[in-house]
Amino acid sequence: MVFILLAIGIIGISAGNGGWMCWFLIWLSIIYLLMWIRYYYSVTKIYKKMSDKRITVSVGADNITIRTSEHLSVMKWSLIKKVWSFPDVLLLFTYGHWNYVVIPVVPLGEELKKYVEDRVREHGGKVCS
After folding, report:
1. Of 21, 51, 84, 114, which residue is least crowded by CB atoms under 10 Å?
2. pLDDT in tens, 21-72
3. How far apart (Å, rounded) are the C-alpha atoms in residues 69 and 9?
């Protein structure tokens, strides 16, 4: 999406239409990319500081629990609004498009992956494959 906006802005300027909208799209794209880079390096820095990098995921009938050496998150199934299902990870979106939790699929197994997807559907969430 960001690259599409950037391309539209650049094409508009190169076609001779250097209006404010083209410049706005270019700057909006650059700001978004800079925010993503900042987020990526922030998460990488936190990960490197963790003394124990193991993550424990517990799946229950009422909630899903994610535990690290420094944090514990318990989420009720109704809090998860959307799941993006990929062959190697599940992305569990909680409040919107920006807040999500990544869970690797290989340690879970296909049966538990399907269980998570079913629980999210039962509580009004959407699963996208």
Report:
1. 51
2. 888 888 888 998 999 899 888 888 887 888 888 888 899 999 999 898 888 9
3. 45
Q: Which amino acid is present at 107?
A: P
Q: Tell how strand 126-128 and strand 100-104 pair up.
A: unpaired
Give Dmax (Cα) for the chain. Answer: 59
The Cα–Cα gap between 46 and 64 comes to 23
Chain Cα centroid distance, residue 70: 21
CATH tag, 56-128: 2.30.29.150
Q: Which residue has the higher pLDDT, 1 or 30?
A: 30
Q: How far is CA 31 from the centre of its chain?
A: 19
Joined together, the tokens standing for residue 71 give: 């944090």
Phi, psi dihedral angles at 44 (to 5 degrees): -60, -40
Q: Strand pairing partners for 72?
A: 67
Give 44's contacts (C-beta < 8 A, 6+ positions apart): none
